[in-house]
Amino acid sequence: MIGLSVAVGRFVEALFWGIFRVAGAVAGALILGIAVAIIVWIVARKLWNRR
Fold first, then answer.
1. Per residue in 29-45, pLDDT tens?
2. Distance from chain centroid for Cα 51
3. What integer pLDDT is reported at residue 51 of this predicted model?
């Protein structure tokens, strides 16, 4: 019975770590995408003002 409890606990822990890893990757990609969009917008605006 104790072995089963340990196995279930480890499974739940691995599941949470997997969820947190995916959520972190999604958040990182979102932040990177926003940063790139802001940089492109600033560069495009500066090029537009030169004309």
1. 999 999 999 999 999 99
2. 38
3. 74
Q: Which domain holds residue 40?
A: 1-50
Cα–Cα distances in Å, from 18 out to 1, 24, 37? Answer: 26, 10, 29
* Overall number of domains in the chain: 1
- Indicate the average pLDDT of the chain: 93
| Cβ-proximal residues to 42 (8 Å cutoff; 6+ apart), any chain | none
Look up residue 48 and give its DSSP letter.
H
